[in-house]
Every structure is written in C-alpha cells, then in structure tokens.
Design a protein that fits this description.
With 343 residues, this protein is an alpha+beta fold. It folds into three domains: 145 residues, no CATH class; 67 residues, no CATH class; 58 residues. Helices cover 45% and strands 23% of the residues. It contains 14 helices and 15 strands. It has a six-stranded mixed sheet with strand order 3-2-5-6-1-11. Strands 12-15-13-14 form a four-stranded antiparallel sheet. Strands 9-8-10 form a three-stranded antiparallel sheet, covered by helices on one side. A hairpin with a 5-residue loop joins strand 13 and strand 14. Helix 1 packs parallel to helix 8 and helix 12 runs antiparallel to helix 13. The chain is elongated, with a radius of gyration of 26 Å. About 5% of the residues have low confidence.
C-alpha cells in the first residue's frame, strides 16, 4: 500500500479532489471540518475518505465496519464503478497553522470493500447526545432513517453506535495488518500516476494534458484557452465554438487543457486560493505594450515571432480586454523619459 507519511492532509486530499472530482467539490469543505474536529481528545483520529466524480465522503473508520450504518452502506455502494473512486485511510496527528497534518494510505477500493464485507460487525442501537445535553437511544434503523431530520429539528448532535462486538480489537487488527504492508511513496508521483492512468483509459498515453470538469472547461473556453475533447479510443481534438454546450451532460469522454496552459487556468480560476500576483495591473499593461511592439522592424526570427505571439496570447487572457491602453502608455513612457525617470 502506498503511504504518505507526515503530510499536509488537507492539501494532499484537495489535490485529489481537483484531479478526480468533477462535481460537488464543496463536499470537501465538510470533510475538512470533520478532520479538524479530530484534534479533540474524544474524537476519532482515524478516517476513511473517498473522492468520486460527484463529490467526496469522509467517515470515522470504525463506522464503516458497522452494519447497517450510513457509513457502511455508503462506502460499499460504489463497487459497481470502482474506476472513479480514489479512497484513502487517513490518520490525523496534529493541527498546526490552520493545517491538518498526519498520514495517508492509498487504498485499493474494491479490495478494501471486500475486507469490510468480511469483517463488518452488526450494530443495533445509536446513542445520540443533543446540544442541550439530552441523550436518547435509537434503534439503528430509526436513527439512520431520521438522522437528517433530527439535525434539522433539534440542531447539531453527536452519536455513537452501541455494538456488542469488540470493535476496538477489530480496528487494532486491521490497522496492524495495514501497517505491515506500507510502502512510503512520493505524493507528487502518485498524483501524476492517477492523471496518466485516467487518460490511458481513453486511449491517450501522453503527459501533456490536464483533465477538466465540463463547468471548468466552459470557463477556460470563455477565457480564450484552447479546450480539447478526448473521446474513448478516438483521436483527441480541439473543441470548436459552441460545441461544449452539447457535451456538458454527456459521458464517455474527457475534457482537458494543455499542461502548458494550466498555470494560466490556475491564475484565472476563482475557486483556487490566490497567491500574490507577479505583476501589478500597470506592469502587465507595460509588458503587453513592450511585447506587442517588439519585432515591428522585422528584426525578429520566425521562432522569436512565434514565441512573442504565444506571450501575447497569454497576456491577452490574463489582462483582459479593454486594459491594454498602449497609446496612453506610450505617452506616459515618453514623459517619464523626459523627466529622467526609469520607466
């Protein structure tokens, strides 16, 4: 099993979400809340987490091994489509500077489901503690049926399953077995492998494209970035104007941008955390003006002109229409030079 020891759990799992989850990515924010709560002395620090095409799930590990719990039913539900599932064992060690730290183990989803089915234990009751301190015991079927309505009617609550089995011994045995089969692994390498694996399923074996959701592909296309269609076992091609709309709700293909365009998309994507800008708006305008005027005396080679055109295309996307005021900038530069200032 591939193990990632002493990592920023939050950042690593977020990268999995960006690569593997196309819809309902906001589910992950709830998962992070559960992981942060694990720092509490009484809270579980061992979780099972999965990313799927339409969302994520995070459960205390022991709940997955109790049937018919919600965690157990949900974890086993996706066995019919295992190729879309990326699953992990998560062990939280610390919470520092707003980050959840600990270890991850990449699971083979189908093999893990088989283990759960072989070892899961029956549970008959759920003990619920409401926010006002009132406690009540529910039969498991009643609790699972009404868990959402209980929260809506009575507010947040905590619960624990009342199992007659020795679940602690089972968890100790499972974790010991897992620990004996760990292979320390590089997370960057793992992410590259799952990216290539996905494209390989569509008959493409290169490493120069990045997958997008239909929603993100639409935004990339609107921003001027070329978006490519990968039909299954057919040559990939660049999408034409208006073609994306008909593909938004169809399956059996991948949408992607070139690896070289990903930094631009990361810059433009409003859902990603922003780093400090490399250029101020004024500096970007100056850079655009300088690049657009370079080579006008036909001194540039064909390759230099091609490189300049690529820079212009990228700058055009980043700056946006209406912000490239070259004439006004030219006058500003002349005034600064007359005053002996460095532009």
């Amino acid at each position: 099993m591939k193990a990632f020891i002493g990592v920023d759990i939050q950042e690593c799992l977020r990268r999995v979400v960006e690569e593997n989850t196309l819809y309902h990515k906001a589910d992950f924010e709830y998962d992070i809340g559960d992981l942060k709560n694990a720092i509490s002395v009484l809270a579980s620090k061992n979780f099972l987490w999965m990313s799927r095409e339409s969302g994520t799930y995070c459960f205390p590990e022991r709940d997955v091994y109790l049937t018919p719990s919600y965690a157990n039913n949900t974890w086993l539900y996706y066995r019919g489509h295992p190729e879309e599932i990326k699953s992990f064992y998560v062990e939280v060690d610390d919470f520092k500077d707003g980050r959840v730290l600990g270890s991850l183990v990449a699971l083979d989803y189908l093999s893990h489901c088989a283990q759960v089915q072989e070892t899961m234990q029956p549970v008959h009751f759920a003990k619920v503690t409401f926010k006002d301190g009132v406690r009540r015991t529910f039969e498991i079927s009643e609790f699972e049926k009404n868990r959402d309505s209980l929260r809506q009617n009575y507010g947040p609550y905590t619960y624990e399953y009342d199992s007659s089995s020795d679940l602690d011994s089972l968890m100790y045995h499972i974790r010991s077995q897992r620990k004996n089969n760990l292979e320390p692994y590089d997370f960057d390498r793992y992410m590259e492998e799952i990216r290539l694996e996905r494209f390989a399923r569509f008959g493409y074996h290169g490493s120069d494209f990045v997958r997008l959701s239909p929603y993100d592909a639409q935004k990339c296309h609107a921003a001027g970035l070329p978006v490519f269609l990968f039909p299954k076992d057919e040559p990939h091609r660049e999408l034409r104007d208006g073609e994306l709309r008909s593909l938004r709700y169809k399956s059996g293909h991948l949408l992607a941008i070139r690896q070289q365009d990903k930094p631009i998309w990361d810059y433009l994507n409003p859902e990603l955390p922003k780093i400090a800008s490399l250029f101020t708006p004024k500096e970007l305008s100056r850079l655009y003006w300088c690049v657009s005027n370079t080579g006008k005396n036909n001194d540039a080679t064909l390759e230099e002109n091609r490189n300049l055109q690529e820079l212009l295309a990228k700058l055009n996307i980043i700056i946006g229409a209406g912000e490239k005021e070259a004439p006004a900038l030219e006058l500003e530069l002349e005034l600064e030079q007359e005053q002996g200032q460095e532009p």
